[in-house]
TrEMBL record, chain B:
GO terms for molecular function: L-isoleucine transmembrane transporter activity; L-leucine transmembrane transporter activity; L-phenylalanine transmembrane transporter activity; L-valine transmembrane transporter activity. One of its GO terms (cellular component) is plasma membrane. It is a multi-pass membrane protein. PANTHER family: BRANCHED-CHAIN AMINO ACID TRANSPORT SYSTEM PERMEASE PROTEIN LIVH, HIGH-AFFINITY BRANCHED-CHAIN AMINO ACID TRANSPORT SYSTEM PERMEASE PROTEIN LIVH. Its main location: membrane. It comes from the Bacteria. One of its GO terms (biological process) is L-isoleucine import across plasma membrane. This is Branched-chain amino acid ABC transporter permease.
Amino acid sequence: MNDESTLRAGEEPLAYAGAVEERGPANVALGGRGVATPAASGRTTAGRALSGVLASRWLGPCVALAALALPYLNSSTYVIQIAVDALIFVMLAVGLNIVVGYCGLLDLGYAAFFAIGAYTSGLLSTRFGWPLLATIPVVVAAAVLGGLLIGGPTLRLRSDYLAIVTLGFGEIIRITANNLDVTGGPNGLYGIPGFGDFGLRSDIALYWVTAVVVCLAVLFAGRLGRGRLGRAWRFVREDEDAAEAMGIHTYKVKFAAYIAGAVFGGIAGVLFAAHQTAISPPSFNFLWSALILMAVVLGGMGSTPGVVTGALAISLLPELLRGAENWRYLIFGLLLIAVMIFRPQGLLPARTGEARRRGRRVRGGAS
Amino acid sequence: MDHFIQLVFSGLFVGSFYALVALGYSMVYGIIKLLNFAHGDLYMVGAFAGFTVLSAGAGVLGGGLLALLAVMLVAMAATGGLGVLLERVAYRPLRSAPRLSVLITAVGASFALEYGIAVAFGPNPEVYQMGVSDGTLNVLGARLTYAQLAMTAIAVVLMITLDTLVRRTRTGRAMRAISQDPKACLLMGVNVDRVISRTFFLGSALAGAAGVMAGVYYGKIDFLMGFVIGLKAFTAAVIGGIGNLRGAVLGAVVLGLLESFSVAYIGSEWRDVFAFGFLILFLTVRPTGLLGERVTERV
């Protein structure tokens, strides 16, 4: 696969034929490699300084600290509200990044897991009076079940089937929530309790709970991507056949990614339910799934700092550009195409521990 | 019994819509192995192109079948051209790129088309100003409107034309060849790019025709109408065996009938759930579809 990526620039016909062949998902958007865009080669001093900052090990803790300290800086209800939304979006993007970025599976119905999480915790807390915290294990179980249901049949097939099946699954969940009486039909559920206020203003308490959960989730996802399983995911993404030949059980590995993504989505759903206190089916439509995907793609698939930045950008931009909804989505759509053509690795591409070694092995292939 | 036949007819009618869209899906998939998520949106654009023609030529065009045909031809040309443009701008640069990139591009294209139309025409539904005569016909105790009959006939004619095109013409042969082995085609001097462009043109034009028909029949169009039909068409293509043209038609008819009966016995609010559930079931049990084989004639 490495050879193919180096050929890509010049040898159109051959590369084309290669792409059409039944080879599975090839190498996707790995930090600048093989994607000979002018942007990657002509780097300025400022760019190098920026990437130095991004590579710094202190970046993560600093951002986390800033997130936790926000209520001290500005505690207006508006800011806290927006910040909780943004953090939940970050969690969703990080979860989807496991599926799309690490493992190279396209999930177009990610909002389904978000909905499963929100509805499960909403139902248990409003109809049965469970405290919200106690619903989390059930939410995780429900998300896993949903992942099994969808992943089971489709992960064995070519990866593009998964994309469209998840798209259908997202619709199924939304329509089901809309039709059932138990979920409140089109009105949805309301009066969902929070996590408690710990003697603070209730929205600030929720903000801190969210911030802690999301920071832990980001940390967890980042470390997951660097471990043994993460390496297997990247291998599957780069070349599924080769991965299989090297003894990776690709089905299991893909399943793991899909389930991990589902659990992240489910927990984000709990946070969302607590934050909104009322949920209804339109909150979980395809637009959500597409926006989360955009955050992942624009930020840089497989790159935790990139995805977090992308998510923050996508969730905060609307606050600045209010009123021009349709224009915004039109631009997002065009941007997706442009990013894939000109900078498939995203704005802040992934840098893994193997980056330096990879440079040497470009011709050698996977050994 | 009457009820049963009525359900069969309405299933066949809906199925012929799905078939027109599914054919394009299947053709594009057959030839470049791309799931064109924007395909359903091309159907939507077709409906809006027809709407534009209708509002521009409201005085000149009467009601009637001829006017419908004229509007359809214009809409087909417009969506066909758009399909070619889409392929040229969004998909061709990525042909050698990893599959995930192309899929994401297709999602972006779908988004761009939807919200481009929303920007151009406004987000509210538009009303089609075209009443096709409302007479009904009794066949075996079931009621059929002339509009349904005419549209099913048009759809069938379009399908037969496409089938002949693919089976009998030079371009058709080139398409079938590329779907089997693009590399060999290149070596044999087939102009692969041009054939792919033509495939996009044909597939998109069919979707555009279906869009106009939907606009005339349902009377209302909006910029998100392509989303669900795209999914349904994909389901139909999978049921029939994706990449197989006759399979796509068969799958569409099967899906139309299934939906028609499920609506009657389960309830219309579950229609989409039923269709997608069927897709998942089908992928579990027989992912190659009814007519799909490992070695099958594709395009």
